[in-house]
Amino acid sequence: MASIEKRSPGVWRARYYDSAGRQHARHFKRRIDAKKWLDEVTASVMTGNYVDPKVARTTVSDWCDSWLIGYGTRRKSTVRQAAVHVKVIKAHFGTTPLSAVKPSDVKAWTVTLGERYAPSTTYATYRRFAQIMSDAVHDGIIPRSPCSRRTSPPQAKQRPYVATTEQVWALHEAMPAHLRVAILLGAFVGLRVSEAAALRIQDVDYMRGVVKPQIQYPQEPLKSETSMTPVPVPADLALLLSANRAEYGGTTVVTNEVGRPTTPYAIERAIRATRGQVAGLPEGFRFHDLRHYLASLLIASGLDVKVVQTRLRHANATTTLNTYGHLWPDADESSRAAIAVALSAREDSSRTAEAD
User: Domain residue spans in the chain?
Assistant: First the structure.
């Protein structure tokens, strides 16, 4: 229900009632402006883009706070990461009403982010903002999100450093004795550092040669069902893991000097302290780079993308290809050979026809 009435000379009041029965009114100097406003409101209701004016004044900061509370049901590490992104978002858009954020504002913001952060961090922060704005649309706070393919910064193209087998073993020998098993879990099982630190004795089948990641540090669920995929390991590696258990005991596979559970930080700190002793390892080499070594090892052995995906416990093959596609050998020569076979078949067919 909507109406326009003259309140006093030169003042027209336009009003309407929303679906909840609440009255909304505005005053205009001209009747034509009042009618235009009501027409716009009616059109937004008909198209499903209507937003309560009071709700539309919600600031980015207020919505981020509410959104983060609802996001708190996820893993603690995921929530901590989201909180970091939200802090950056609020620093730029905090007092701005959600409805006032334009695509051009988002685009300019991503340029600013790119000047301060690495491409991967810029992209991750933008994706978080896009997620937050999309949820605001879902809640009916804004009619549409200012984030789209046009406002997105480019996704960082990962070209990981791949250590040689000699470098991996040299790093293994340089590590403190009680943490050498962590290098084995990273380079030959493909565990992430939080998974390696939390791997329990019962998560390893030493007889059958199977590692079954179940949790990550600190005693949290893994990020997906795919991450819990059992990883087969050769007998030689199972023996090394068993020998480490016999020497250090404890409830976890990776321990400190006295057999107590260790932390991801302790493992990374040891790598930072020893990587300089290994010729050729870059200064930024970290535990996660051992997964890259495993990927290169599997690819060089001729395994296809689906097998590599499964061993690395990626959710889909796209992630595997985006990260390691450049490591598959002889791509150019293989494509040339395939085309050459087709051309050769045509030539053979022509020669046979001429002979007949």
Answer: 2-50, 60-138, 165-327
Please state, in angstroms and as integers, the Cα–Cα distance from residue 88 to each residue in 61, 75, 298, following that order: 11, 21, 39
Q: Are the C-beta atoms of residues 189 and 211 closer than 8 Å to each other?
A: yes
Hunting for tokens 């050729």 — which residue is that? 280
Which of the four CATH numbers 1.10.443.10, 1.10.3720.10, 3.40.50.300, 3.90.950.20 does domain 165-327 have? 1.10.443.10
Q: Write the CATH number of the domain with boundaries 60-138.
A: 1.10.150.130
Q: Which of 328, 306, 331 is nearest to 317 (CA)?
A: 306
Entry pTM: 0.62
pLDDT along the chain (356 residues), means of 10: 75 73 76 77 63 71 89 78 93 90 94 89 93 88 88 77 89 93 92 92 92 88 84 90 89 90 93 91 90 85 83 79 66 65 66 58
Cβ atoms of 107 and 85 within 8 Å: the answer is no
CB-CB contact of 18 with 52 (8 Å): yes
- Provide the terminal-to-terminal Cα distance of the chain, rounded to the nearest Å: 88
